[in-house]
Amino acid sequence: MSGLFGGGGGDSGASEQLEEQKKENERLRKQAEDERRQLGEEDAARRRARTRGGARMLLSGARVNPEEGITTLGSAGSSTTTQG
Predict the structure, then answer these.
(1) Where are the chain's structural domains?
(2) Cβ of 41: how many Cβ atoms within 10 Å?
């Protein structure tokens, strides 16, 4: 039927639509991949913090007396102060 009216280039709109759909699919795939990578990194960071004790290990082997607690400046021999 398209021969009667001199058609021939009838699929140009469809090819443009397919091209736009391919671009959109690629964008969505990249976005999903980025989200998956970010979630993996966050999970790995949580796992590292749990296994290594985080940045501040109070019972560290590097401290001389870890059970003693943190002493404040001005308290000469005791880590606890009493108010009277």
Answers:
(1) 14-64
(2) 10
pLDDT tens, 20-57?
A: 999 999 999 999 999 999 999 999 988 888 887 655 55
- CA proximity to 45, closest of 35, 59, 55: 55
Neighbouring C-beta atoms of residue 66, cutoff 10 Å = 13
| Cβ–Cβ < 8 Å for 8, 2 | yes
Q: What are phi and psi of 76, to 5 degrees?
A: -65, -55
Alpha helix (H) ranges present in the chain? 12-52
Angle, vertex CA 68, rays to CA 71 and CA 56, nearest 5: 75
